Amino acid sequence: xxxxxxxxxxxxxxVVGFGTNAxxxxxxxxxxxxxxxxxxxxxxxxxxxxxxxxxxAGLQRLGLRTSYVGRFGNDHAGEIGIESLRREGVDMxxxxxxxGARTQIAFIVIDERNGERTVIWKRDEKLHYTPDxxxxxxxxxxxxxxxxxxxxxxxxxxxxxxxxxxxxxxxxVDNVFEDIEQLLGMMDIIIASSDFPAKLFGPIxxxxxxxxxxxxxxxAVVGITLGENGSLLLCDGNFxxxxxxxxxxxxxxxxxxxxxxxxGLLYGMIKGESIEDSARIAxxxxxxxxxxxxxxxxxxxxxxxxxLMKKV
Length: 312
Prior knowledge:
The strands form three sheets. This protein has an eight-stranded mixed β-sheet, with helices on both faces. The protein is α/β, with parallel strands linked by helices. The protein has nine helices and 14 strands. Strand 7 and strand 8 form a beta hairpin. The protein has one domain: Ribokinase (UDP-N-acetylmuramoyl-L-alanine:D-glutamate ligase, 3-Layer(aba) Sandwich).
């Protein structure tokens, strides 16, 4: 089954991303500590992350052309975040450094036994966008706009501009934010975490949740990520259930795996692959990301994705 979209041709960018960037402090422990206890860490790493920034880096590494719209603080963490994206080749003309702001950070505790993580994060209010502050010209010449809804009203303004220009709009959503229902109603692609539908609708089975997301908001493609179990998508009344891949060498860290899934799905769509093949690519990208600690450390190249898919 093909994606039910017509992508614009001859654009400057394949994907423009609007949303979060962060610098992560990743702490590896032999087991997750109990309340009011102590545990000696095995290792720790400082690395760039953030959902949308990671997605743009991942798409760029797969050979697509991306641009990032977002704000950094004028601190050392901001320097790390900006340089990490420039090094990947992500266009940064719409990124900003805000005087007096602190770049978003996250402390991530990783259980060495299985690579699962717990995230403790903080985003400075000074990084917030109002609807009047978003650079509308950023979506003038791209096939896809992809974002997280942390600044929902700013997202709405950017989505309105993207829709007027025939740009496909994709959202990465895992929590209920202000104006989320209005925003979801403007999406072409909704990919959510497995626990998001329950936050929006209350307890609900996965397939029923996707039907309800599509019925209520009208997105042509809706889906949820299921971790090591893969993913479930719904398009044109058909469910596409895709198994996850074993992580080569074992899972070291799941930080950014969901972002990486979205990387693979958008990559497949832009390359003209079917929804089924794009979902396999997405799960392969997510698995390969988990080879090393950090959201972006092990983001794969096209050859690495092809190699993994051929083995399975």
